[in-house]
Automatic annotation (TrEMBL), chains A, B, C, D:
It holds the Pfam family adh_short. This is NAD(P)-binding protein. InterPro entries: NAD(P)-bd_dom_sf (IPR036291), SDR_fam (IPR002347). Gene3D superfamilies: NAD(P)-binding Rossmann-like Domain. The lineage of its organism: Eukaryota, Fungi, Dikarya, Ascomycota, Pezizomycotina.
Amino acid sequence: MASKLIAIVAGVGPGTGGSVALKFASKYPVVLLARNPENYQGLAKEINDKGGKAIGISTDISDSNSVKNAVSQIKNEFGQDVGAAAAIFNASGGFLRKSFLEVPEEAFRASLDVSVNGGFLFSQATLPLLLKGVELKSEHPPSLIFTGATASVKSNARMATFATGKWALRALSQSLAREFGPQGVHVAHAIIDGVIDIPRTKDFLKELGPNAKLSPEGIANDYWWLHTQPVTNFTWEIDLRPAVEKW
Amino acid sequence: MASKLIAIVAGVGPGTGGSVALKFASKYPVVLLARNPENYQGLAKEINDKGGKAIGISTDISDSNSVKNAVSQIKNEFGQDVGAAAAIFNASGGFLRKSFLEVPEEAFRASLDVSVNGGFLFSQATLPLLLKGVELKSEHPPSLIFTGATASVKSNARMATFATGKWALRALSQSLAREFGPQGVHVAHAIIDGVIDIPRTKDFLKELGPNAKLSPEGIANDYWWLHTQPVTNFTWEIDLRPAVEKW
Amino acid sequence: MASKLIAIVAGVGPGTGGSVALKFASKYPVVLLARNPENYQGLAKEINDKGGKAIGISTDISDSNSVKNAVSQIKNEFGQDVGAAAAIFNASGGFLRKSFLEVPEEAFRASLDVSVNGGFLFSQATLPLLLKGVELKSEHPPSLIFTGATASVKSNARMATFATGKWALRALSQSLAREFGPQGVHVAHAIIDGVIDIPRTKDFLKELGPNAKLSPEGIANDYWWLHTQPVTNFTWEIDLRPAVEKW
Amino acid sequence: MASKLIAIVAGVGPGTGGSVALKFASKYPVVLLARNPENYQGLAKEINDKGGKAIGISTDISDSNSVKNAVSQIKNEFGQDVGAAAAIFNASGGFLRKSFLEVPEEAFRASLDVSVNGGFLFSQATLPLLLKGVELKSEHPPSLIFTGATASVKSNARMATFATGKWALRALSQSLAREFGPQGVHVAHAIIDGVIDIPRTKDFLKELGPNAKLSPEGIANDYWWLHTQPVTNFTWEIDLRPAVEKW
C-alpha cells in the first residue's frame, strides 16, 4: 500500500520547498515540481542517495498542459492508480514592491498567474490523487498544504501585486478545506510571517541576533505535523514567525 | 472647477452600479462603463433627461486596450486636464457555485480576469484622474470605491472561483488605501453581505418579509456617505446587510 | 411621537461623546451620562441654550444600581413609555500602557469593568428603550452604537489591559447586532483608529500636518450616518482614521 | 536541570485539560489546578501511578489570593527557583446561551471573571516561572498556551456572555505573545472549533459518524507540538476542528 502513496511538492528550491521535500521523503516517494530543473536536480539526488525516492519534473505550474504532463509522468512512474499522501503548493508569484502606478500590467498578471492560477491547477491536478489516497487508507489523512506569507493577511502599500495573489490563494485554500475536509482530505494554509533563513538571506536581520529568521527545517516539521493530524482534529491555518519578529 | 470633476462607474446595470451612478450624477457628470451598451444606455438617457450629464463607453474592464480607450474618450469629452471626484469599481467575475473539480479552467480564469485584473486596470486608469481631482481641490476627497461581497471575507465550499477574485480585490483596495490615502485619495471597500433587490431577484427571500434584500439606493447613499468623509476621517471598509440577514 | 424618542450617550466629554451628543441633539432630546457632572454640564447648557433639550445624569456605568437609577430618572423626565432612537456607548476603560508583569490587578479589573461590564449594563438598560423605539416607529431604525479603537482589533505588547476590554466590547456588539438586528434595532461598532483632535491632544502629531487627527465632528457625522441607514442596509462595523495614519 | 522544570495546567477535568496534563507529564512534573479537587485527584493518581509526577492544588483561578497560594505551594514542592516549561490555561467562564435581556448580571460577571481575570492572574503567576524556564535553558521554549473556542472569533446571537470572555482572552494571548516572544516565551492560542469527545458529549453528533468530535488526545498532541516549536518558528494561533465540521 505504502508504495502507492506519494508526496508532491510544487516550488522547490533552497528554502521551504526543499526542506519540506526532504522531510516528506522520509516516508513517501516525492515528486519535485519546478520550472527550472536546477531547482530540483540536486535535491532529487540528495534524496535518492540517502535511500529515499525522488523524481523531478520540469513544470510551469501556471500552464495547464504542463501540469497535465506532470500528472502523466507521475502516473507513468508510480502507476495509474497512484494516490497522494501529501501535496504541497509552495510556488509564489513575484514579490514586486513598487508604487502601484509603476507596476507593469504583465508583472501583475504574471504574479497572479503563479499564485492563483498555479494554485488552481495544482489543486485540480492533485486532489484526485489525494482522494485516491483516502481510498487507499493512507496512515495520515492526505494533506494539501499551501504556503502563505505576511501578505496573505495584510496588504501593505506598494505590495498589491504580491498580496492580491496571496489573499486569493488563501481564499482558495479555505474553500477547499470546507469542500474536501468532509471527504477526508486535510487542506491547510501556513502564514509564513518573517524572513526565511536561506543562502540568499544570509546577511538579512543580523542586527536581531541568530534567531531572527525562520528555519526551513522548522517549517517542514510544522507541515509534517499538520500532515499527521487525525481526521477529528484538522487545523486549517497556522501562522509562523521568529520569536523576535515584530507583528 | 466643478465642471472638471467627473465620476466614473465601472459595472453598471439594474443594481448597485446604476443606483450609484444616479446618486453621483446629482453632483458630477458621470461616465458609465460596461461591456454591453444595453447596460448603460437607458441609464445615461435617464440621467441626461433629468438635467444631469452622463456618457456611456463600452469597455471590457479586463482588457488594457479597452480601458485605455475609455480614458481617451473621457479626455476627449471632458478635457485633457479632467479630474475625477469618484471612481467606483462595481464589476465582478462570474458567480460560479460548482464542485471544485468541475470548475473549467477558463471559467476560473475569466472570473479572476474581471475581478482582479479588471480592478487593477480600472485603478491604474482612474488613480491619475483622482490625483488630479486632489490637485483641483475637489470639495470631497476623491474616492475610489470597490464593491465587495460576502465572498470577500468568507470563502465557502464550491465558491472558490468567485471568492478568490473577491479576496484579491479586497487586498488591492487595502494596499491602495494605504498608498493613496496619504496623497488625499479615499480608497474604500464595501462588503455587500446579502441579496440585492433588483428585478432578477424579485422572488428571492419572500419568506423573510419585505425588508430581506439590500436596497440599491441605500447602497448608493452609503457610497455617497463614504465619498463625503473628510480627509481626517476616512473609512476603509464597511459591511452592509439587511437587518434580518443571518451572518 | 417624536417627543417620545430620545438619544442616550454614555461617556461624554470634550471628544467623541460630546460631538455625538450635539449632533443627535439636532433631532432628539439627549441624555448625557458621565460619572463626573463636569463632563456634561457645559454640554447640556450648550444644547439647551441652542434650543435643544439635554439632561445630564451622573452615572457610574459599571455599577448596576447607578445605571438603574439613570433609567429611572430618564423615565421620570420623559415618561414611562419613552423610547430611544439612539444609544451610544462611548465609555472606555483606562488606557494603561505597561509591561504586563507590572499591571496591578485592580487596574486591570477596573478597566474591564468600564469597557465590558459597562457595555453590558448600558446595553441591558437601553435595549428595552430601543425596542420601544421600534414600536414607536422611529423615523430611523433605533441604533445602539459602540465606540471602539485600534485596540479593538489589534492587541499590542503592553496593551493587554485596554485591548481585552475593547475586544470583549466588540464581541458584545457583534452578538447584539445578530440578536437585535432582526428585531429592528441597528447595532454598530466603530473602530476609531487614530488620535482624536481634542484639547488634550493639541500638540500631538504636529509633524504630520493639520489633518493628522480625527475630527470629533466627523465621527459624530459618521455615527449619524449609521443611524440613518434603513433596515435593509445595516452596517455593523466601520473603521475610521486620518488619511495620513499608518496602518 | 530538568527536575527544575514543571508544567502547570489550569482547568483540568475529563477533556482537554486532562489529556494535556497526561501528555506533558511524559516529560515534566505537572501541577494540576482546578477549583474542585475531584477534577484533579484521579488524574494526579493516574500520572503518579504511571511513574510520572503530579500534584493537584485546589485553586479558584479568578481569585488572586488563591492563585498566589498555588504559586507558594508550587515553590514549596519544587523549590524557590523552579521554572516552568509550560503553562496551559484551559479554564473557561460559563457557556450561557440565553437571550441577552435575560442574562443575569452576576452570570455575565462570573463568566468574565474566570475567562479574563482568570487568564490575567494565571499569566501574571506563571510568566515569572516561564521566564525562569528560559534562564534554565529548557529544551523547548517555555510555552504559555490558551484554550479558545469558536466563540473566540465569532460572537453569535445569545452567546455574548461566553464570547466576550473568549475574545478578551484571545486579546490577552496576542498581547503576551508580542511582549514575551522576544524574551523567549512562546505564547499561543488554540481555537477549538467543535465538540470535544468527552463522557458528557457521548451522545452528541452521532448522526455525523464516528469522527465528528475533537479528540482530547489529539488536542494534547497539538499543544505538545506547539510546545516543541523552536524559537525561530513560533505559531501564535491554530484552529482545530473535525473534518466534517461545518464552518
